[in-house]
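Help needed: design a sequence for this.
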């Protein structure tokens, strides 16, 4: 990986939160052009570091996961999304 990439990614999240206040992971994802799954991963990481608070959660009904292969392919930063490594093999782009 490129040195400093984590700080750059975290900086993007922090900037969204500073400028928009309370937002959902889906809103963060839309603003950053990433998958919701990737946003959840990084927000959880920031919460573990004590940088953000997670104020609510919602039960995902059958088939409603933000972390499926189709949504992962839409992520513009999939190379920087460790959450994707846990998914089954992604369909090839192209």
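Sure. Designed sequence:
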């Amino acid at each position: 990986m490129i040195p400093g990439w984590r700080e750059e990614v975290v900086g993007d999240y922090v900037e969204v939160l500073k400028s928009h206040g309370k937002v959902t992971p889906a809103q963060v994802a839309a603003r950053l052009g990433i998958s919701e799954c990737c946003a959840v991963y990084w927000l959880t990481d920031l919460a573990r570091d004590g940088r953000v608070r997670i104020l609510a959660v919602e039960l995902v009904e059958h088939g409603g996961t933000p972390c499926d292969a189709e949504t992962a392919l839409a992520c513009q930063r999939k190379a920087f999304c460790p959450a994707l490594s846990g998914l089954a093999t992604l369909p090839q782009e192209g």
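The chain has a mean pLDDT of 77.
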